[in-house]
Amino acid sequence: MTLRVGVIGTGMIGRDHIRRMTTVLAGVAVTAVTDVDVATAKKVAEGLPGAVLHATGEDLIADPAVDAVVVCSWGPTHEQYVLGSIAAGKPVFCEKPLATTQDACRRIVEAEVAAGRRLVQVGYMRRYDAAYRALKEVVDSGQIGNPLMMHCAHRNADVPSFYEKESAITDTAVHEIDMVRWMFGEEITAARVLIPRKSRNGGPLQDPLLLILEMAGGALVDVEISVNIRYGYDIRGEVVGEDGTAALGDLSPVLVRSAGQAATPVPVDWRERFLRAYDVEIQEWVDSIAGGGVPLGPSAWDGYAAAAVSDSGVEALRTGTRVPVTLAPRPALYDAAVEVPR
Ligand SMILES: NC(=O)C1=CN([C@@H]2O[C@H](COP(=O)(O)OP(=O)(O)OC[C@H]3O[C@@H](n4cnc5c(N)ncnc54)[C@H](O)[C@@H]3O)[C@@H](O)[C@H]2O)C=CC1
Ligand SMILES: O=C1[C@@H](O)[C@H](O)[C@@H](O)[C@H](O)[C@H]1O
Q: Residue limits of the Gfo/Idh/MocA-like oxidoreductase N-terminal domain (predicted)?
């Protein structure tokens, strides 16, 4: 059976997911699109034989030729489309963040619990990245002993002009927030932010930042967030255990030695660095729901938990204090929600 998908938001990642669903993945077809930027959506629809261009996200969700919805619009619009998909009983893959506040995420969790089945998956694609999966396997094997700390770096070459001070946490470090919950298999209990000297490349932003996360089991995670690093898109992670360390490997397939130097290329952006992870993520989502099953990836609960930590991180950035994370009780629908079945 071919899963018929409608895509809301035909911007950068919307178009990238449409490309992979139409030219890379199996068992899926894009049958409808919409965007408030009608001209772009029309152009995208014209390149998709048989696809319908809808005036609104609500019309797309109601389309009988749409079995499942992919939400790639701006964060503040996610809640309405995810709630609309749940109300229509349709599986929905929502790009991160699930919603921009923890209250909005809770409303989504409550709607899904009321519906009585898992319909929502959130686009935290690092759980599907080969390097992160290999790192987690080492940690889970016990080879490096009990994990005590994790050092992370999230470096963007640059960011768009509408990127705000808080985006370093809510839009960028939110990937690490989800990833470490999954890596350690436990919740984050508090956040702090340390502010170093400002980069001259950062404009009005406080760039870089250091986010410190406390894990429920006592481990500490530090995340360097640099969003104007210029040289490329660089994602790092190293877990320090009692008996050893394990780090994400060098991902380039080529090392060039020339003119007295050894060099590997650095990815330009997230599309290049996580190309394969997005493919695996969406293919697994398609496969899990195509036969009427439930989505197995990051859940609405994971989206809510990440948003709650993100809110604490923003508060820590604003106040310079340690801010605890308080989560609502986890509904039984999400038991084992920080684990991704393999
Ligand atoms: N998983 C990942 O690594 C990444 C995730 N993202 C996430 O994907 C989402 C979109 O990001 P980008 O594609 O980079 O942004 P973008 O600005 O390129 O595209 C967003 C599109 O949504 C449309 N839009 C805005 N409001 C809408 C509404 N109410 N209804 C329908 N369409 C609407 C805009 O017109 C625009 O075309 C964001 O939530 C972002 O955080 C983005 C980049 C990477
Ligand atoms: O999700 C993403 C963007 O929205 C965000 O702005 C970037 O900082 C991240 O690296 C990228 O993965």
A: 3-124
Q: Nearest residue CA, atom 2 of ligand 2?
A: 172
What is the predicted pLDDT for the residue at 338?
Answer: 55
What is the 221 CA–ligand 2 centroid distance (Å)?
19
Superfamily of domain 3-125+276-299: NAD(P)-binding Rossmann-like Domain (3.40.50.720)
Which tokens in the block code for residue 184?
Answer: 């350690």
Establish whether residue 72 lines the binding site of ligand 1, counting it when its CB lies within 6 angstroms of any ligand atom. yes
Whether ipTM exceeds 0.90 = yes
- pTM > 0.90: yes or no: yes
Q: Is 171 in the pocket of ligand 1 (CB under 6 A)?
A: yes
CA–centroid distance, 15 to ligand 1, in Å, is 10
Distance from C-alpha of 243 to C-alpha of 302, rounded to nearest angstrom: 30
pLDDT in tens, 261-280: 999 999 999 999 999 999 99
Sheet with 52-53, side-by-side order of all strands: 52-53, 28-34, 3-8, 68-71, 92-94, 120-122
